[in-house]
Design goal:
With 286 residues, this protein is mostly helical. It has one domain (3-284). It is built from 12 helices and no strands. The termini are close together.
């Protein structure tokens, strides 16, 4: 794996955890998630002015990916409504690399060293331990919301795996700048339609003016995070990229514990050592 790709993915992971924390902290998480994607789409228009429109071949990938991205955001918002950041995020991000790697092997006939598979496995086990070991039954925590959070988190991970495989091909048909810009335009538009149906009003009418700068920052982080990972996907294998993105769980667990008041934050941080071990094996095997 090129070291440039490693740096891009780790930076992307850091940005991704921060914008998720912003959405989780919002009063209406679905609207907050839409505002984040809408801000990214507005910034994406500027990218189109620089890079131009993507090729028609790339659009064939961007359209289904946009649908999966919209589904991913809806599932993520539902998961955050029911559970902690340090519970939802590790599951959503942890199961995805297993699915994406399996898909890459089947669809693209990729081959990875056995050590890389071991590293990916440890990363996955580690992020699941972050939630399984850290989340303990507590009288103040109802079991049903926790089950709902886990279910929506698993659906989120399936969407992540799906659009990762699609975008891996799509970004190779055009420039990463134009591809990610169109992708944000597609999925923010679809998400706006969903919010309109769900809330019975247009999402921008639900925003408080004081929140504009916060969601603008969140959108810039989301756009930057995905742009960086798309560039990495264009120069490295999807299995490596999908796994290395999971370093964001360390940041998310810390933010959830120290800033959002998540329960059992420290045990979740301690169990993230398994993630670090998996990443060390994965990078060493390159």
């Amino acid at each position: 794996m090129p070291l440039v790709a490693l740096g891009l993915v780790l930076t992307s992971a850091f940005l991704h955890a921060i914008w998720n924390a912003i959405v989780k902290a919002g009063d209406d998480r679905l609207v907050a998630a839409w505002a984040t994607t809408a801000a990214g789409a507005i910034l994406g228009l500027g990218l189109l002015g620089i890079a131009g429109l993507p090729s028609r071949y790339a659009l064939a990938f961007a359209l289904p990916s946009g649908v999966l991205h919209a589904a991913y955001v809806v599932a993520l918002a539902r998961a955050y409504d029911a559970g902690d950041l340090s519970l939802v995020y590790p599951i959503a991000r942890g199961v995805a690399p297993v699915l994406a790697t399996a898909g890459a092997v089947v669809a693209f006939h990729e081959t990875l060293p056995w050590a890389a598979y071991g590293g990916i496995g440890l990363v996955t086990v580690g992020v699941l331990l972050l939630s399984a070991l850290g989340h303990r039954a507590d009288a103040s925590v109802a079991r049903e919301p926790v089950r709902q959070a886990i279910t929506w988190s698993l659906l989120t991970s399936a969407c992540i795996a799906g659009y990762t495989l699609i975008d891996r091909q799509g970004v190779r048909q055009t420039s990463a700048l134009s591809y990610v810009a169109v992708l944000f335009l597609i999925h923010s538009s679809l998400l706006a339609l969903y919010v309109r149906a769900e809330r019975r009003t247009f999402p921008w009418r639900l925003l408080v003016p004081a929140q504009m700068w916060t969601f603008g920052l969140s959108g810039a982080l989301a756009l930057g995070a995905y742009l960086l990972v798309l560039v990495a996907l264009s120069i490295s294998q999807v299995g490596y990229i999908a796994a290395l993105r999971e370093t964001s769980v360390l940041v998310a667990a810390w933010i959830g514990w120290r800033h959002l008041g998540d329960l059992q934050g420290l045990p979740r941080l301690v169990s993230s050592g398994v993630v670090a071990l998996g990443l060390a094996i994965l990078v060493a095997s390159r």
